[in-house]
Amino acid sequence: MSMVRILSASLDTDDDGEIIIRGVLDQDTLKYIRFDWYQREQGFSPRHTNEIVGALFAGHKIDDITIGMRGQRCESKGDVYVLQDRCFCINGGQRLYATAVALKERPDLKVRLGVKAYTSTTEESENDMFCKMNTTQVRVAASVLLRNRKKKSHAAALLIALNKNSDFALKDRIAWDQVRTRHELISGFTFARIVGALHSHKGGALNSSKLYDLLDGLDALVENIGDASVNTNIIRFYDAIDKCWNIRNLAGGRPAAPQMNAVFLRTIARLLSRYPEFWDGVGKDRNDFYFPDRYIKRLRGLKLADYVRSSAALQKDVLYELLRKRLNLDPSFEDMDAAA
């Protein structure tokens, strides 16, 4: 039977007063701890993994892991607890992976891996804990945390689904995992920030660089103007970029093409948000984005590589003004309250 054993175990309470089991994981049962969808699907750093393996070989202590058991079947005998229902890793996936690597290389290695175990968890409660634990750590990418809200956030689900939409110029090339693969052109979090900038005239937290504030703003946007409008606006925006500079046929790799530069895309999205001629409606009720062909003609031929560099973040105002003049937009019609 696939049971997880915890040695030298005792009952304790976490910061919220919930009863947990603390102890040392029996290394022979490490293989029975599962990973669910909310965990990073790929992208463990080889360097960090090797550091953990080296620490284990040297007999050093590494941080405890957190697991959740989806059920209540648990037996104890002395200071040994046996978890009989399915157990899932909530926090410490790379430590578990590195421990497995170390034991494969040295089967006689004795590992003392601390564990904190919750019982009666669910997929939803584990995901909530995973996101909460990793918002203060560098270890998990913002795109992963955003992706993990897809079952609670309408906006997150919409952005992720767009990655499979055949009408979308960047189909299958938005990165929602820890590390971008070679064919992926932009991270999910950067994508979300660009969508927020494009709609920033709608108000709220759409310009925020804070993950969950931005997501709240995007959820409010979807509720306000509807899925169809948000989807269509994103597709039309990237179609416009494609017609001007070609993104559908980009091969990926490093360095990124200038038309996929995050500062450039947020800058042009912010510019287009501010000018009513790109929207159907008046005031902040402008819901539907359009990019007429005459503007495509004005942008074609602009050599972005001359203006967009990896170190160009401080030049975004200059880039903004360059694009405004290239599009021949009258600043007297600019909605200065649309975007910060």
Describe this structure in words.
- It is built from eleven helices and twelve strands.
- 38% of the residues lie in helices and 15% in strands.
- It has two domains: 4-133; 141-333, no CATH class.
- The strands form three sheets. An eight-stranded mixed beta sheet has the order 3-7-4-8-2-1-6-5. Strands 9-10 form a two-stranded parallel sheet.
- A hairpin with a 5-residue loop joins strand 1 (4-13) and strand 2 (19-25).
- The radius of gyration is 24 Å and the shape is elongated.
- The mean pLDDT is 86.
- With 340 residues, it is an alpha/beta fold.
- Helix 6 (188-198) packs parallel to helix 9 and helix 7 (211-225) packs across helix 8.
Shape annotation? elongated
**Radius of gyration over all CA atoms, rounded:** 24 Å
Strands ordered across the widest β-sheet: 3-7-4-8-2-1-6-5
* Strand runs, count: 12
- Helical residues, percent: 25-40%
Following the backbone from N to C, one meets helices and strands in this order, namely EEEHEEEEHEHHHEEHHHHEEHH
Rounded mean pLDDT is 86
Category by helix and strand content: alpha/beta
Distance between the termini: 58 Å
Extract low-pLDDT stretches. none
For the report, how would you describe the main beta sheet?
8 strands, mixed
Q: Which strand-content bin applies to the residues? A: 15-25%
Summed up, the helix count is 11
How many domains, as an integer? 2
